[in-house]
TrEMBL record:
Organism: Miscanthus lutarioriparius
Function per UniProt: Component of the exocyst complex.
Protein name: Exocyst subunit Exo70 family protein
GO molecular function, one term: phosphatidylinositol-4,5-bisphosphate binding
Coiled-coil parts of chain: none
GO cellular component: exocyst
Amino acid sequence: MDRIPVAPLKSSSFSAATSREEKLARNLSLGPIKLNEHIKEAQKEKAAAVDNAGEAGADAVPEEAAEPDLAALSAEIDAFLAAPRDGDAPPAVSEVTLDRFASAVEQEIAQSEGTDNKWAPNEAGDAPPLLTAIKRLAALASALTADNTAPGGATTYTIGVHRVTGVLHRAMTFVEDEFHGMLEDPRVAKVAPQAADTGSATGRSMKRPPSFGHGAELDRCVVPTAFGDASPPFPPETVGRLRAMAEAMFAAGYETECTQVFLVARRNALDASLQSLGYEKASIDDVVKMPWEALESEIATWIKAFRHTVEVDLPGERDLCAHVFAAGGQQRCLGRDIFADLAHCAMLHLLNFTEAVVLTKRTAEKLFKVLDMYEAVRDAVPLVDAFLVPPAADDGEGEGAGAGGPVATADEDGGGSGSASTALVDLKHELASVRTRLGESAAAIFCDLESSIRAEAGKQPVPGGAVHPLTRYLMNYLKFACEYKKTLEQVFQEYRRPDDDDAEHGGGDPFTAQLMEVMELLHGNLEAKSRLYKDPSLSSIFLMNNGRYMLQKIRGSPEINAVVGEAWSRKRSTDLRQYHKNYQRETWSRVLNLLRDDGVITVKGHVQKQVLKDRFKQFNAAMDEIQRTQGSWVVSDEQLQSELRVSIAAVIVPAYRSFLGRFSQHFTAGRQTEKYVKLSGEDLEAIIEELFDGNAVSMPRRRT
């Protein structure tokens, strides 16, 4: 009998070339592959068996000139597989048929390499022919192995088992590589042969991530640059092909390899999505040492990446797992386990960043970024809760992953698997823990404002009685904080300090009570700082400036105005009026007294000229001093500045005009008048108009 011909290996995927063996012998999930040695050994055994049969005088049966095609061989294999195996002797199939069928499948795979539609079904709803052939090969390998291990059948198909299992193993490598490439980039299924990196799909997809290799610089999926491409959706036809590949690998007993490839490919895709959003992994030490300007930018990027992961990427991964692993209860449970692992890994990595931020030194400017992170984590909780509910898998192929399919409370296999539920529950607890730490950090930062105000005890007064930097900083800070009013109320309700229980303000709301405490502390601090001025009038200007600035900020912001309340604003308005009165009394009452005839200037109807001269001298000196000093004082609020000038002019100018009109004629015209009457009414108005603009000038000469 002639030797059974072994079909030549037809393509690069099934070549005996050394380079191919070296590639496949890498530390892939399928392990090192050395099938050529098995095939050579099987061929030697078969040749020896045929030679022995010839020596015994057995008649050799010539083979047919034309070998049957894959369809005919498949029919013969199906008949073998369908035959009952409950008898004493298992059903028979010739070694020639086994070899020819293995070669035909090998040929089918080789011809499919580099083609664009190798995974497309002939008819809608059917499995792709290539996968059908591979699944038939897997069923044959299983049956042959079972027959060989049956009593009396230990060597029935020695050569056939080597041949079939060898081709199956290499076919699974091919499927695994295709599976990996399609998972890393859903667009890979639409790449034309000439666009591939190598001459075959296997060559292209063999470029594995470092987790599969030995740390070499290997290709990963392309990182998109546009935000919308960060997590490209899988077309429905691609999802169907992925599902068919997974079913084939499961049928062949390669479920471990299938899940490993899926996990690594999708982890890489999630990493690529984060990179496309500008987020880079950083250690806790790096974050803690980062300057605030850099950390602020990193936090903004983190928030964008975190929200995109929770709202876009993970729901897409959940749907993909549900659709790819949709064949039966076992696969569905495994799909949920895979998704739980993906979600757990992706989220824990992101949450580690929040831990690092909380460990940084607490400063007031970090409050708002911490609150932004708190809101992102808080808003993610219901989405993670939804992940705990198993999705309803669609057994058809009309819906792609990421489509946001329906959610069911349970399915026919009795709900989610234990490991998936545990991983997601752990993730939920981790989210709650991170949220707590962020909330506590935010509350502590806001409460630290009290310490900042008490520590601000500078002994140098602000020049010109201007608005104090502490007032500007705190009022703008509180205004911005009130834009986070609802979040801060939630934070203080959940993480309120024990001494906040007897809050006196805001009807028991701890955030309002804390804010009002800060406002009162600021008010008291400003009153203390006003006493640093030796001039009581300047103290009043300082209090007016700062009080007016506080009121303007409150009334200009509906958020802070709603927290502070109208009663507090009215009280501060009353204080402002009192400061104004104090200023008028301290500065201008003395000037007005000089313009009154109090019985000293006119005695018994006669003007005491020397007393009149002294009065004009005193008035001129007083106005010169006011212009010199108060011209350097600052009132930055234009409305307050105008109010002060108008109120001063309304009192002083009419009184001076009256005094001037009554007594100026008692001086001799010429030098005497110029010596004592240095200001006209218009000159006095001009002096008043130049007050409080920060520019001290000398008193002008009398206008002529």
